[in-house]
Every structure is written in structure tokens, then in C-alpha cells.
Amino acid sequence: MIKVAxxxxxxxxxxxxxxxxxxxxxxLAFAFFGENVLxxxxxxxxxxxxxYIPQDNELNSAGFSLIANMNSIENTVSFVEYDSPxxxxxxxxxxxxxxxxxxxEGFASGIFSGVNPELEVVFKSADTFDEQVVKDIMLVLxxxxxxxxxxxxxxxxxxxxxxxPYDQTMELADTVRVDELGYALDRMSLFSYESVDSIxxxxxxxxxxxxxxxxxxxxxxxxxxxxxKGSNPAFIARAKLSGISPAIFFITEALSVMIMMYxxxxxxxxGLHFTKIGISLMALxxxxxxxxxxxxxxxxxxxxxxxxxxxxxxxxAAFTVMMYLAGGLLPIEFLPxxxxxxxxxxxxxxxxxxxxxxxxx
Amino acid sequence: xxxIEKVSCKYKKTVLTDVNITAERGQCIGLLGLNGSGxxxxxxxxxxxxxxxxxxxxxxxKTGFVTQENALIDELSAYDNILMWTSMKKEEILKALQGPExxxxxxxxFINVKVRNMxxxxxxxxxxxxxxxxxxxxxxxxxxxxxxxxxxxxxILKFIDAFKAKGGIxxxxxxxxxxxxxxxxxxxxxxxxxxxxxxxRSVSEIIND
Lengths: 361, 209
Prior knowledge:
CATH architecture of chain B: 3-Layer(aba) Sandwich
Oligomer: heterodimer
Order of helices and strands of chain B: EEEHEEHHHEHEHEEH
CATH class of chain B: Alpha Beta
Shape of chain A: elongated
Structural class of chain B: alpha/beta
Number of domains of chain B: 1
Strand content of chain A: 5-15%
Mean pLDDT of chain A: 77
Low-confidence stretches of chain B: none
Radius of gyration of chain B: 17 Å
Order of helices and strands of chain A: HEHHEHEHEHHHHHHHHHHHH
Number of strands of chain A: 4
């Protein structure tokens, strides 16, 4: 039976190769260019932040919009303006938003008068990755807002002292705002995703490559469902009458699937080792247990359904949802908060984590 | 010999009760009935794949089961499909295929052809040969002539006669009238009962009973 199993593997490999070639190329393209799609300007706002801007001084709105329109903040934080500080606090409490920024009444005028009112940054908790990012952004935003407004106030005050006419004061203030904008724009890279991502172990490209690889291997049910015969009563009957238990039959087929997957993975690894994804060649050894787990999952799923077509489509739907909830198809930070918390119970999350560890550490 | 005593079987909606059949060496037993009457369930119980809910099945010797759906691997050749279920060597397999009974099935003619390139008749011949090569004393066949051309049907019927002549026992579940000409006893499965019928009556008469 072992000899025949190897013959089956050799005869079936062209189908496996065709599958991995087709989906592998698509996955590779996604891994290389996915970051550009995911982080394209305005494509996503990672989190919502509530804000309250008092209308007692136009400088409050001007200063706030200056900072909020920084590219990196615009693409990371979606601001929702509320009518009162209490509404902001309530929104944070209800978890409608991740954080709140409250600019107190008299903030702009108070800066120069020596009262020095403080901005209020509200968090319910900051224990997740996205909240930490927002917390950092908010603190710098608050700092910049204060600095920006103080600069503008200084210009007005200086013009008053040197007795410059009002219209020239406005002209001068506008010039300072333009300079200030340049200052802020120079700091855009502070919040670019590279900086955010640098605190994690893997680059975004690596994360996408690892997750997509797991996804492509799981979806190989599409091809392996035709290889596995354990759902066919005729084969089970034949195996039993030949003295082969269903368990042995399953293990033989799962190991055959594993061998075919491993050959495909070895080719992928050698190919990607020389690209910017940079899979470690040690992955050839470290990925063995992960490929074994996936092979047994794929064989098990193939055994559940009598028809290979049913196995393929149902596993496609199930694995896609599972991978999405595990943060495998989009960064987990893009998921709603309750789904992020639920992902700790998703086994695919750990499968992806182990894969990243095996491939890139 | 095969002795089935007061056997009851249940599978999905099919229920068979109080089945009593005795088959001696060299006999062919026909199981006739409509779809869902329990023919395949009874064959599974005789083969030992499914356990009967009640009663006893005594079988002298080894059973071989040719299921309605062929247990063949498409990407393998006829030879490899036979090899999959036996520990025999290539020479032994080729020699066995040219023996007096198996040569009727003419599997040697397409021994290196992959299953995906075979006709329905070739597949059925191969499925039967791969079971027979393991040396069963009792052969169970579920719809062996379904969707076969005339030469394939004739060869399989000829094989059944040869297997009986060698002292083997055959159980056949079928709808095809021509099968029952080769049977020594015919049982009609209807409404959960298995009744011995007069083999001189035509199949349509029995079914419409």
C-alpha cells in the first residue's frame, strides 16, 4: 500500500503543482503589493476618535484641522465631532470610539493669558495594539495643537506690540500658518505605517505573505478533496475487507497530502528566499509540523463531504471567514473591537503566528 | 456455506427484519427489490462492514464485496489499483489474472491503462478482478451490470458461472433480469421483508407482486 501511495503522490503532483502555481502567484502578488492597497490614502481609517471643539475661538478649529489633516493621522484616525465634552466621554464609555479628545472652553485664548488650560484625552483602556497607536497619536496631536496655537497667538501679540495694522497682522498670521503647516507635514513620517509596524516583529509584507500562505494551503481542499477517498463508502468498505482500518487509511492519505504540500512549500520557500519577503531556509524544517497540521485539517475536511465540490466550496466559505476573523486576510487592527477580542479563541490566529515564527524568525 | 438467521438491519430509512437465507457452495443468490428496499444494506451486513441490529450471520471462508461504485483510483493504472489492496508481487498478480476464472475478465489487456482512460465496462471488470484476486470464497456484488455494454455484461455473467463452478458462493443485488437466470435462489426484498420467490417467475412479475 505504501508503494502505491507514493505512486499516487507522483501521479497527482501535476494537479497540486497547477493549484499552487495559480494561487501561489496570486498570493505572491498580494503579498508584494497588498500593503499599497491596504494603506492607500483614505482606503481605511483604523479607528474612530471622538472630539469636542469649542466654538469660542476660531483658532481652536483651525489648529485642530491643521493636525487632523496630516496625512498619517488622516489615514489612521477617523474623527467624529460631538457637541459637548459629556457626549465625548459617553461615546468612549460605550466603546463607540477608541478615544476622545476634548478641547476645553477658552483653550485658544487661555494659552497666552497664562491660564494654560489642558487638553483632555479620554481612554477607557489602552491594552490593544490599535489603542496604543491612537494613544501615542493623540498625545503628539495634543502637543502639536498647543504649540500651533501658541505660535499663532504669539504672532498676533507681537504684531500688536510693534503696532502693525490689523490687515497686515492677518497676512503675517497666514504666512506663519503656512510655515506651520510645512512643519507639520515634515513630521508626516512619524505616523506612517512603517514606523507603527516597526514595533512589531514582522514587516507588513511578511505578515501578509505568512497569512496568505496558510490560507492558500488550507484552500488546497479544492484539489486534495479529489485525492482523498475516505468519504467514499466503496473505498471504506474495500479497506475494511482488506484488513485496513479506516484510521490507517486516513493517516496514509493525510501523510500523502502532507508530502505533496511539503514539496510545494519547499519550492515556494526557495523561490521567495531571494525576494524582499525573505523566507528563511530554516523554514524548510520549522514548517514541517505546521504543514502536518494543515494536511490533517485538509484531509479531515475532505472526509466530511461525499462530494469533492461540496468539500471545496464549504471549506472555502468556512476558511475565509475563519481567516478573516483571525486577522489573516486584513490586519487584525481593522476588525471591530469585539471581533479583535474574540480572535484569541480562533485557532487560525495561532496557526498564522506559528507560521510567521517558522518562516521569518 | 453462508447462513443468515433472523437478521435485522437498519440503515437510514431502510429497515429489514427477520431475514433468513442459506447458501451452499456453488450457489448464486439473487436479491431483487426496488431502490431503497435494503439490498445494499443486506450485502453490507453479510460482508461484515455494517453490523446487523439483530440475528446471526455465519460465513464459511472469506468475503469479497464489489460495491456499486467502483473503488478505483483514477490517476493509477489497473495494475496499481490491484496492488493497492494486496501484498502480492507483480508476477503473482499477472499470473493470477491469466488464471481460468480471471482471464474471462480480460484485465491483462489493459493492465497498464490508467483508470481515468477506461470505459465503464473496463472499470467494472477491474473492480471485480481486484476483489477476486484476494481469493474470496463468498462474492457479494451490488448492481454489477448497471450501465455496462453487452460484451462486458456477458463476460461478468460468464465469470459468475465460473466462480460458482469453482465452489464459490455469489450474492447479487440487481434490477437486471438477465442476472437472475444465473441465480439458484431469488429473494424479493419488499416492505422490510426478504421472501424466497419462485425463480420460474419473471422479474417484472415478482416486482409487481
